[in-house]
C-alpha cells in the first residue's frame, strides 16, 4: 500500500463519519484542555510559592527552640529545655562563614501615633535584619547595633504603616506608642509586600530585647543565621549545633537550613501539581474509552471494506496500520484542539483572576500532545488487531 493510499483511506474514513470523528476528538480535547489548565494552575502556584520563599535568599539557617523529634523516655526535671536567648545569638556571630545573625521575636500589639490607634505586627529584631532578609531602608536607618541586652527605645516602620500614620510627612524623630511604651522612629523600610500571607509593610521593628519585654517572653521566636554562599551549609549547621550545645548542655533546639525547607516545600508542591494533573487524566481516560468504542464500531461497520482491501493484496500489518492511523489522527486532532483550548482558558482565567498565578511550561504542552497520540494508539490497538486478523473470504461473505 502506497503512502498516498494510506493517507487517502484514513482521511476518507474520517470524513465519511464526520460527527463520529468530531465526538471522538472532542473527548480527547476536553481531557487535554483539562490537563493543561490544571497543570498550569498547579505549576503557577508552585513557582509563586517558591519565588516568595526564596526572595530572602537561599543561605539562611533557622534555629527554633525545642526539638521537633524526640527519642527515649521522659527525663523529668532534667528534660526542661532552655530558651533561645539574645546571648545565644551573640555567640553565633563569632562562627566562621557567618555573615549575619538575627534574633527574632514576633507578636501583635497596639500602636499609637498622632491620635491614631490600631493593632499591627511587631517584630523584635536584631540590627542585621536588612542584610539577612535582603531588605532595604528607604528613609533613615535600621535599628543600630546597641547593647543587645539593653537597647534604646527605637523603632523602624514598614512603608504601609508609615503612610497610614504620617502620610507624606517625615516621620524620623517622631514618637510612636507600641504596647504602651514610647519609641522614637529612626527609619522607614522599602516596600516588600506580602510574603506567604505576612504583610511586611504593615509592621513595626523594635529591638529584640524590648520585644521580649513587650510580649512577656523568655525565649526568642527564632534565630536566623545568614552564611556565605560558598560555605557548606552542613558544616555551618554543625558549628551552630556545637556552640549551642555547649551553652545549653544538650540539644534542645532545632536547626533547619533553607535547602531543607525548600526540599520539603518543593515535594509538597510537586504532589499538588501531580494531583491536579491526575484529575485531568480522568478526562483523558474517558476520551481513550471513547476512541476504543468508536474504533470497535468502525471495524464492525467496515468488515466488507476490510475484506476487499485484503483481497486486493493488503497485508495484515497494513490493515493494522490503517486503523491505528485513524485512531492516532483522531487523538492528535483532539489533542491539538485541547491544547489551544487549555492555553486559552489559562489566559482567560489569569485575566479574570490576576491574583491567581498561572504558568504553562511548553514542555507540558509538547508532552500533552504526545500523550494524546499515545492514548489514541493504545485505544486503537485491539480494534485494529481484530480488523487485521479478519479472514478476507469471511469478510467479503459478511458484506
Produce the secondary structure layout.
Elements (H helix, E strand, L loop, with lengths): L2 H14 L1 H37 L5 E6 L20 H7 L5 E16 L2 E10 L3 H4 L4 E4 L13 E4 L1 H8 L8 E4 L2 E9 L4 E2 L2 E2 L3 E5 H7 L7 E6 L5 H16 L4 E5 H44 L1 H9 L4 H37 L9 H27 L3 H7 L1
Parallel strand pairs: 3-10, 5-7
Antiparallel strand pairs: 1-11, 1-12, 2-3, 2-6, 2-11, 4-7, 5-10, 6-7, 8-9
Helix pairs in contact: 1-10, 2-8, 2-10, 2-11, 8-10, 8-11, 9-12, 10-11
Describe the structure concisely.
The protein has 399 residues and is α+β, with helices and mostly antiparallel strands.
Any overview of this molecule?
- With 399 residues, this protein is of the alpha+beta class.
- The chain has two domains: 3-52 and 264-398, no CATH class; 98-229, no CATH class.
- Helices cover 54% and strands 18% of the residues.
- A six-stranded mixed β-barrel has the order 2-3-10-5-7-6.
- A hairpin with a 2-residue loop joins strand 8 and strand 9.
- Helix 2 packs antiparallel against helix 8 (258-301), helix 2 runs antiparallel to helix 11 and helix 10 (316-352) runs antiparallel to helix 11.
- The longest helix has 44 residues, at 258-301.
- The radius of gyration is 33 Å and the shape is elongated.
* Low-confidence region ranges: 70-79
Shape: elongated
Coarse structural class = alpha+beta
> Can you give the helix content as a percent range?
40-55%
If you average the pLDDT, what whole number results? 79
Strand percent estimate: 15-25%
Tally the helices: what do you get?
A: 12
Radius of gyration: 33 Å
Overall number of domains: 2
The tally of strands reads: 12
The helix/strand series, from N terminus to C terminus, equals: HHEHEEHEEHEEEEEHEHEHHHHH
- Kindly report how far apart the N and C termini lie: 22 Å
Strands ordered across the widest β-sheet: 2-3-10-5-7-6
- Biggest beta sheet attributes: 6 strands, mixed, barrel
Amino acid at each position: 500500500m502506497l503512502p498516498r493510499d494510506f493517507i487517502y483511506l484514513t482521511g476518507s474514513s474520517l470524513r465519511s463519519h464526520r460527527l463520529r470523528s468530531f465526538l471522538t476528538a472532542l473527548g480527547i480535547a476536553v481531557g487535554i484542555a483539562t490537563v493543561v489548565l490544571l497543570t498550569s494552575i498547579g505549576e503557577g502556584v508552585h513557582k509563586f510559592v517558591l519565588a516568595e520563599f526564596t526572595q530572602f535568599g537561599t543561605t539562611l539557617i533557622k534555629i527554633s527552640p525545642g526539638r521537633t523529634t524526640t527519642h527515649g523516655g521522659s527525663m523529668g526535671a532534667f528534660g526542661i529545655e532552655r530558651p533561645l536567648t539574645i546571648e545565644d545569638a551573640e555567640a553565633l556571630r563569632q562562627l566562621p562563614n557567618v555573615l549575619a545573625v538575627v534574633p527574632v521575636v514576633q507578636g501583635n500589639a497596639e500602636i499609637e501615633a498622632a491620635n491614631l490607634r490600631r493593632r499591627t505586627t511587631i517584630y523584635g529584631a536584631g540590627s542585621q535584619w536588612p542584610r539577612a532578609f535582603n531588605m532595604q531602608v528607604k528613609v533613615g536607618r535600621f535599628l543600630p547595633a546597641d547593647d543587645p541586652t539593653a537597647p534604646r527605645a527605637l523603632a523602624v516602620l514598614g512603608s504601609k504603616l508609615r503612610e497610614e500614620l504620617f502620610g507624606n510627612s517625615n516621620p524620623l524623630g517622631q514618637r510612636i506608642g507600641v504596647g504602651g511604651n514610647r519609641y522614637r522612629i529612626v527609619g522607614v523600610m522599602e516596600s516588600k509586600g506580602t510574603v506567604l500571607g505576612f504583610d511586611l509593610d504593615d509592621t513595626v521593628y523594635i529591638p529584640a530585647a524590648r520585644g521580649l519585654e513587650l510580649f512577656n517572653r523568655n525565649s526568642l521566636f527564632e534565630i536566623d543565621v545568614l552564611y556565605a554562599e560558598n560555605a557548606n551549609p552542613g558544616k555551618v549547621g554543625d558549628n551552630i549545633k556545637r556552640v549551642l550545645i555547649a551553652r545549653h548542655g544538650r540539644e534542645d533546639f532545632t536547626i533547619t537550613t533553607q535547602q531543607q525547607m525548600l526540599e520539603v516545600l518543593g515535594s509538597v508542591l510537586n504532589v499538588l501539581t501531580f494531583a491536579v494533573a491526575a484529575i485531568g487524566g480522568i478526562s483523558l481516560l474517558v476520551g481513550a474509552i471513547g476512541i476504543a468504542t468508536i474504533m470497535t464500531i468502525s471495524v464492525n461497520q467496515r468488515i466488507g471494506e476490510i475484506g476487499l482491501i485484503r483481497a486486493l493484496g493488503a497485508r495484515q500489518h497494513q490493515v493494522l496500520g490503517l486503523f491505528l492511523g485513524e485512531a492516532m489522527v483522531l487523538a492528535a486532532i483532539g489533542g491539538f484542539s485541547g491544547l489551544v483550548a487549555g492555553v486559552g482558558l489559562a489566559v482567560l482565567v489569569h485575566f479574570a483572576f490576576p491574583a491567581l498565578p498561572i504558568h504553562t511550561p511548553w514542555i507540558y504542552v509538547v508532552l500533552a500532545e504526545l500523550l494524546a497520540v499515545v492514548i489514541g494508539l493504545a485505544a486503537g490497538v485491539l480494534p485494529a488487531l481484530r480488523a487485521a486478523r479478519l479472514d478476507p473470504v469471511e469478510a467479503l461473505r459478511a458484506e
